[in-house]
Design a protein that fits this description.
The chain has 198 residues and is α/β, with parallel strands linked by helices. It has two domains: 11-142, Rossmann fold; 152-197, Wheat Germ Agglutinin (Isolectin 2), domain 1, CATH 3.30.60. The chain has helices at 23-36, 76-80, 98-107, 129-135; strands at 11-17, 41-46, 56-58, 64-70, 85-88, 111-117, 138-141, 144-145, 152-153, 155-160, 163-164, 179-183. A seven-stranded mixed β-sheet has the order 3-4-2-5-6-1-7, sandwiched between helices. It has a three-stranded antiparallel β-sheet with strand order 11-10-12, with no helix packed on it. A two-stranded antiparallel ribbon has the order 8-9. The protein is globular and about 55 Å long. The protein starts with 10 loop residues before the first strand and ends in a 15-residue tail after the last strand. Bound molecules: adenosine-5'-diphosphate, magnesium ion (MG) and zinc ion (ZN).
């Protein structure tokens, strides 16, 4: 029998993909299974927006699991001490020290499941995701259903007043009334930078 998981020590699993691809659902599923197996599991997420349920990870389909919102990556090791498995949702929003924080957790024997957007709304690598994907023992890239053509979607479309967002918009706009769709590469659109159109 070939083992998928190491027998000793920690490891890093990364779940990536666009919005609506089921990353949070998959994170919750894995952490629940760990709990069923008698392991102590905790989900943390970045404290970027207090409007949403700050004490839970909630998927677009309503799956829900208790989570602790943290401000800085450096806050995670202390919280993680008593746990065997640490889930991190929206990991792309953490500052670069998240990479060494996760590395240290794995080194001390923790299983870390990190879930996040691999691309921003422009299709560019998001935050520390490239580094995490490179370091991970296991990687899953999930697809959503394209809101336009119903094909497999790998990208996130940002819409401002129903129109494609300009390429020079800020990557993170907390509290903005923008909306998002999952799109395939062919259906994904970017408007000309606002600066170019005057
Ligand atoms: P993510 O964390 O990747 O944004 P979630 O786990 O929160 O995704 O939500 C996944 C769920 O969203 C799916 O199980 C499905 O019920 C729902 N959903 C809504 N729109 C779509 C779509 N366009 N493609 C796939 N799933 C969608
Ligand atoms: Mg999610
Ligand atoms: Zn499409």
């Amino acid at each position: 029998m070939i083992r998928l998981f190491p027998e000793r020590g920690g490891w890093l699993e990364v779940i990536c993909g666009p919005m609506f691809s089921g990353k949070s659902e998959e994170l919750i599923r894995r952490l629940r299974r760990a709990e069923i197996a008698g392991q102590r599991a905790l989900i943390v997420k970045p404290r970027i927006d207090d409007r949403y349920d700050i004490g839970h990870v909630v998927s677009h389909a309503g799956a829900k699991m208790r989570a602790v919102a943290v401000t800085r990556p450096e806050d995670i090791p202390g919280l993680a001490e008593a746990y065997d498995v640490i889930g991190i949702d929206e990991v792309q929003f953490f500052t670069p020290p998240i990479v060494i924080v996760i590395d240290a957790l794995v080194e001390r024997g923790t299983r870390v499941v990190a879930s996040g957007l691999d691309q921003d709304f422009r299709g560019l690598p998001f935050g520390s995701m490239p580094e995490l994907l490179c370091r991970a023992e296991l990687v899953d890239k999930l697809q959503a259903v394209c809101h336009r053509c119903a094909g497999p979607a790998t990208m996130t479309q940002r819409l401002v007043d129903g129109r494609p967002a300009p390429a020079d918009g800020a990557t993170i706009v907390v509290g903005a009334l923008d909306s998002y769709e999952a799109r395939c590469r062919a259906c994904h659109e970017l408007a000309e930078p606002a600066s170019a159109t005057g």
